Amino acid sequence: MxxxxxxxxSLISGEPIPLLELAAENSPSGTYTELQAKTSYGxxxxxxxxRESDETGCNFINLMQIxxxxxxxxxxxxxxxxxxxxxxxxxxxxAVNGASLVSYVFGQCFGNxxxxxxxxxxxxxxxxxxxxxxxNGAKSAEYLFGTKSVPxxxxxxxxxxxxxxxxxxxxxxxxxxxxxxxxxxxxxxxVLILSGNVSKELSRYLRERANLSSERKQRKSAEKTR
Length: 226
What we know:
alpha+beta
């Protein structure tokens, strides 16, 4: 796994470090180098990195966040140093994706203002999407179950909005993709049920078109004989 430590990351401070490769925990001595780093709170921790190989370069895969995991006593309370700060026992790496990744890229290319502007744009887009889907769903519930079902629908809708804002981004997208896929089931059922009507309307349209074409030919023929 490869990662990049960022100079302006809120999780780590110090000089920027180029793309590096993480060594396994059980790597034998001499196959890795230890990198000393500090958190934004000034707490030091060690990262094991593979020694430089003969590779001339590597591909940039994604951005990673580094989060220090506090050591805990047997009773579950965090272990503190003499300054009252939590002692870091290990480091956890996680991928940076979604809006955070896009905002970082915009900020790197166009300055910090671009990242903030993108954040405002995402906020407005999300807000308008929530309102739009709420209105569409309310009208659908009203059509299917009557006007009295609208307050219940809106209550359930708001509950799911709160749930979506607290779960992880990956889980939210997985649920969204699943529900969007399940929407194909009622649509396909509706297509099968209405296929007879569609066939009748198509046949009627083709007959009218053929009759119209025949009338036009008759008119042209009548005009030529005059």
